[in-house]
Amino acid sequence: MVVASSSTIISNHFWNCDIYDRISCPRTPEQNNMAERKHSHLVKMRLTLMTHSHVPKELDAKMADCSSDTNLLLKEFYIPDYILVPESSVEHLSYTPDCPVIVFINSRSGGQLGGDLLLTYREILNRAQVFDLGEQAPDKVLHRLYGNLERLKSGGDKLAFEIQNRLRLIVAGGDGTASWLLGVVSDLKLEQPPPIATVPLGTGNNLPFSFGWGKKNPGTDRNSVKSFLGEVKKGKAMKIDSWHIVMRMRIPAKGSCDPIAPLELPHSLHAFNRVSDTDSLNREGYHTFRGGFWNYFSMGMDAQVSYAFHSERKLHPEKFKNQLVNQSMYAKHVSTQGWFFASLLHPSSRNIAQLAEVKIMKKPGQWEKLHIPRSIRSIICLNLPSFSGGLNPWGTPSTRKERDRDLTAPFVDDGRIEIVGFVDAWHGLLLLSPKGHGTRLAQAHGVRFKFHKGAMDHTFMRLDGEPWKQPLPVDDDKVVVEISHLGQVNMLATQNCISKSIHDQSSPSAVSHHDEDSSSSDESVDDTEEKRKFGAADTFKLPEDFDNLHFN
């Protein structure tokens, strides 16, 4: 018997039947052993099927018997091939998927976990729904998907309408990977952008933690993945602010001022890169860089430590086996760089006040100078309540401080960003205490850094976990970094979400500090076109023969 469809599709159907059989009901240890032997046999059978097109009749019958079981497992999240691959034949489904998903996985994140997670998702979903970010960039994937959806919708395909309306994205990787996808979705400028669930994988995991997905690396077995998919289905869409960052400086007479990533950091150039000569942001005689972030931008001490950590991880990946080891290595860099005794070991030129003048926009269009105490060596512009692995630098101001300093709780969708300073590593350790927080400097709708001429020949910066070394021209007094609000994106939040919405002040929060007696008192320390994309992806362009009325 010659099977019309490809052997790969046949083997995947048979494989999925086994998956359903293995997880559909609890078993005794003896039954589990028998199931594992059966599974091992099916693995060998699958490899055989992938290289042969002739299938025995009894196997063909077995596949037909279990096809309905496969649908029971996959139908909630399933997307048929013809939706994903434009040249595929139309597949008529007898149901509408409740929660169709597209999955992006950084297979290099979390040691071997990224690769294991990729295999598991590809085993229990349509393989065409699951993408390795090391092989396919998300902008190209989503460009193709939404282009095909528009084509099918224009032809009256009802399933295409439902898939687009119900679509959810899953991204597994570090914060930099998640921000990469957020930037791509922002660049698409969709009328109805899909909400995004983040799988914590690697170090940091501030984005997943902020929305209730945890900060520990996930299980990679089928049951763990199935459980996560269930949470994705139940997740609630939540809007968060997007922030645009632009840096402009004169072209230096000597050398380059391009950002220096720590040894081929995968996504740093997606986070922050130089604009092209034809870009509207470009100015003659200047280098202009731009990027976007959703959690934080930082400069100074913390970014320098992060840069050293990422550099060593690239040079010696064998040292970074798990999250506990990673955290201890991070602490080592904090110590060896002298940040526990910063006032003694580092000159005043390392202070933020010596490096740049800071202005903030308290009200639209109104800029005012922000006083930065000379002891501050790290400054963080924070949008979400999670930094450095789940710590909250802003905390929750007391009623008195809210009144006296015109401060509010840190909402993630209020168009304002929190600005926090740190003196040294000991100051950072205060975040581990129940009432600990950094030095609250301000809340603003925009932030502008103007670097002092000749103060330093470089500094360290970080966007959503992606650090880089930023050279500065010593003969230029016009180096400016400006942060401004630019729209919102949709995140998926679980019931454990710690982020707060200004529109839903009853939203769950795991931590509510009232720091009347906190030892880290704040008072104790002396044009639209220019923002049209984040630089995370090429500008989104539909084919010329497309009707783009469905896009904003």
UniProtKB/TrEMBL annotation:
GO CC, alphabetical? membrane
Q: What EC number(s) are associated with this protein in UniProt?
A: 2.7.1.107
> What is the catalytic activity of this protein?
a 1,2-diacyl-sn-glycerol + ATP = a 1,2-diacyl-sn-glycero-3-phosphate + ADP + H(+)
Cite the SUPFAM superfamilies for this sequence. Answer: NAD kinase/diacylglycerol kinase-like
Question: Could you confirm whether the keyword Aminoacyl-tRNA synthetase appears in this record?
Answer: no
Q: Does the keyword section mention ATP-binding?
A: yes
List the residue ranges of the region (Disordered): 503-537
A GO molecular function assigned to this protein is: ATP binding
BP terms from Gene Ontology: phospholipase C-activating G protein-coupled receptor signaling pathway
Q: Where is the composition biased (Acidic residues)?
A: 518-528
InterPro entries assigned: ATP-NAD_kinase_N (IPR017438), DGK (IPR037607), Diacylglycerol_kin_accessory (IPR000756), Diacylglycerol_kinase_cat_dom (IPR001206), NAD/diacylglycerol_kinase_sf (IPR016064)
In this protein, which residues make up the domain named DAGKc? 96-249
> The organism sits in which domain of life?
Eukaryota
Q: Mind listing the UniProt keywords for this protein, alphabetically?
A: ATP-binding, Kinase, Nucleotide-binding, Stress response, Transferase
Homology family: Belongs to the eukaryotic diacylglycerol kinase family.
The identity of this protein, by name, is Diacylglycerol kinase
**Organism, scientific name:** Iris pallida (Sweet iris)
